[in-house]
Write a structure and sequence with these properties.
Elements (H helix, E strand, L loop, with lengths): L2 H4 L2 H9 L5 H19 L2 E4 L1 H16 L11 E5 L26 H8 L3 E6 L11 E2 L3 E2 L1 E2 L2 E5 L5 H8 L5 E6 L5 H7 L2 E4 L19 E6 L2 H8 L5 H5 L6 E5 L9 H7 L2 H6 L3 E5 L7 H23 L6 H11 L3 H21 L5 E5 L15 E2 L2 E2 L8 H9 L3 E8 L5 E8 L4 H15 L18
Parallel strand pairs: 2-3, 2-8, 11-12, 11-13
Antiparallel strand pairs: 1-3, 4-5, 6-7, 8-10, 9-10, 9-16, 13-17, 14-15, 16-17
Helix pairs in contact: 3-4, 6-7, 12-13, 12-14, 12-15
């Protein structure tokens, strides 16, 4: 693997700005890496190598001529296949859009491009982003770089796997019920679900929707912060004084969790206590969050996917079909009740965080599972009845409206990654990033690289 592919985004940005390496060299190294290992992983499913090399040459010329360059100048990225990219195929993981080429960029793509990032292509997703296992009829499954026989999570699974395999150094993603956090947990990278509105989206699907957000994915917390703020401000942001930090520790949020996940995360409690903080066992009252999440999610599915399902039922998968059907069953009373439940939850969460600065809990209730499964059907003997059930530790947090991050939290005894979920106070994104950065620095879990060789081979037993 090229040394350029092992660099984090901040380190690589420094090399580029000091002209110690050219954008062409950086992009070429990452293209070579993708061609060498991604056939086994299937993370970057539409590739834009030719245009990336053209943009890299232009970036080098701009810097050589002393022209102003963006904050992400020359950095190799890839965009989630749910985000529109002008002139580049965007399938949403659906056969209905297998040849779809948008005419304009989504705002997150536009802004990353304006900041100087160079896209190498599109990252794989489940069909229409439904579920936390990245597989679809167009491109197939994305495999976990730490074990090719396991899932990479989802719906930003292609992005997480690409980061873990050192194919890119930054990625965008989106999160409704855990789509930035679950794949980050599965692939030992960082996924930040920011506060609603922190990362603007355009065009908007629903101006009232606060469940779905866009956010950054990276290998380090510092790199994730880089996407949100000026690089000059990152060191100060991440070096905040954590003395007196109050951490609420919940090993399971009252949900079934695999023993291997509990074992992997147990040492994190002591690490957090060592960050000049106080750790107290406490679990927030999340009653009503499940019902509210399912109602608003079903509303979203029926609003945007009812027509494709009605016109082409044979080309829409079972997860999307089931969720649209749940939306068709909704009544005004159901949505009214969900609104009341979410308001009550917001009040209880505010009371909970009066005595805590951060909540620490699992991102996912399971470790990366068999890539051939459709979804997790059982946890510790407890049946999971729908494709959503096993994701509750992430989606219950979504309903709170709080910022949350998945940071590498350890490994199971057989070497599968497990993420720690840190949840911040309302609009407390920067404080949350500081805590996550300190935890990552103290543990070093994120430095463990998957054992991929030049052909992409890894464990697949």
């Amino acid at each position: 693997m090229s040394d350029l592919c092992t660099q984090d985004a901040i380190g690589l940005a420094g090399l580029l700005r000091r002209r110690e390496v050219s954008a062409r060299e950086v992009i070429t190294a990452h293209i070579d890496r993708i061609e060498g290992v991604d056939p086994a992983i299937n993370a970057i499913v539409t590739r834009t190598f030719e245009s990336a090399l053209v943009k890299a040459a232009a970036a080098d010329e701009a810097l050589a001529r002393g022209r102003p360059v963006g904050l992400l100048h020359g950095l190799p990225v890839a965009h989630k296949d749910l985000a529109d990219t002008a002139g580049v195929r965007t399938t949403y993981g659906s056969p209905l859009f297998a040849d779809h080429v948008p005419e304009r960029d989504a705002l997150v793509v536009e802004r990353m491009t304006h900041a100087g990032a160079i896209s190498l292509g599109k990252t794989n997703v489940p069909e229409f982003g439904a579920g936390s296992h990245t597989v679809n009829p167009v491109f197939g499954a994305t495999r976990n770089p730490y074990h090719l026989g396991r899932s990479a999570g989802g719906s930003s699974g292609g992005a997480a796997a690409a980061l873990a395999a050192r194919l890119i150094c930054l990625a965008d993603g989106s999160d409704l019920g855990g789509s930035l956090r679950n794949p980050a947990s599965f692939c030992n990278v960082v996924g930040l679900r920011p506060s609603p509105g922190r990362v603007p989206d355009w065009p908007l699907d629903d101006v009232a929707d606060q469940l779905g957000v866009s956010g950054p994915m990276a290998r380090t917390v510092a790199d994730a912060a880089l996407v949100l703020t000026d690089p000059a401000g990152v060191p100060a942001l991440l070096a905040r004084d954590l003395s007196g930090l109050r951490v609420a520790w919940s090993p399971d949020l009252g949900l079934p969790v695999e023993p291997g996940v509990l074992e992997a995360l147990a040492p994190a409690r002591q690490v957090l206590a060592g960050l000049a903080g106080r750790v107290t066992d406490a679990t927030p009252d999340l009653s009503g969050a499940d019902e509210a999440f399912r109602a608003f999610r079903a509303l979203r599915f029926v609003t945007f996917l009812r027509e494709p399902l009605a016109e082409h039922p044979d080309l829409v998968g079972p997860n999307v079909t089931w969720n649209v059907q749940r939306g068709l069953e909704l009544t005004a009373a159901d949505l009214s009740r969900a609104t009341v439940l979410r308001a009550a939850l917001a009040e209880r969460i505010s009371e909970f965080f009066a005595d805590a600065d951060v909540l620490a809990c699992p991102v996912s209730q399971v470790a990366p599972f068999d890539v051939t499964l459709d979804w997790v059907h059982e946890i510790n003997g407890q049946p999971q009845h729908t494709y959503l059930d096993w994701m509750a530790s992430a989606y219950l947090i979504s309903v709170t409206g709080l910022p949350a991050i998945s940071v590498p939290g350890g490994f199971t005894p057989d070497g599968l990654p497990v993420g720690l979920q840190l949840v911040g106070r309302r609009r407390g994104d920067w404080d949350l990033l500081a805590v996550a950065h300190a935890f990552q620095a103290a543990t070093g879990h994120g430095t463990r690289v998957p054992a991929l060789d030049a052909t992409g081979s890894a464990r697949a037993d």
